[in-house]
Amino acid sequence: MIGSLQEFKTYQSAMKFGETVWKVVREWDWFARKSIGIQLVSAADSVAANLAESLGRYSTKEARQFCFYARGSLFETNSWIDKAYQRNLMNEQQHQELQEQLNNTGRMLNGYINSLGRFTSEPPPKV
After folding, report:
1. What ranges do the domains of the chain cover?
2. What is the pLDDT of residues 5-29, one digit of tens each?
3. Do the Cβ atoms of 14 and 51 come closer than 8 Å?
4. Within a 10 A sphere around the Cβ of 3, how many other Cβ atoms?
């Protein structure tokens, strides 16, 4: 049973991922941070923010919707990571680390979405 965000493992994974993204982007020059960096950090942070909002929703339907928003943000983040790598803003090791964290968070998120089941007006289950 999830009683708080601190117990929500998918949220914790998304938070850790966002912090890793932040550390990578902070090393970039001003132009890279301003152009790609802001987009990348915003997308990565949006994953955890939408998961937090999903946990606070009353119905399973609403909770799932915010999980889908989080999933969309995860895909957007993946796009920005690839773009940053193609533009030589991160090295291969950083790229691989971010991809591994992104994939792990994605697997956890998909598992959580599946645990919510079908759309209903019932409160989401506490897993």
Report:
1. 5-116
2. 888 899 999 999 999 999 999 999 9
3. yes
4. 9
Quick one: pLDDT at residue 116? 86
Superfamily of domain 5-116: 23S rRNA-intervening sequence (1.20.1440.60)
Burial class (CB in 10 A: 0-12, 13-18, 19+), 52: middle
Sign of the CA dihedral with 76 first, then 81, 82, and 88 last: positive
Residues 6+ apart with CB under 8 A from 79: none
pTM of the model: 0.87
pLDDT for residue 4: 78
Q: Which two tokens stand for residue 34?
A: 């301003």
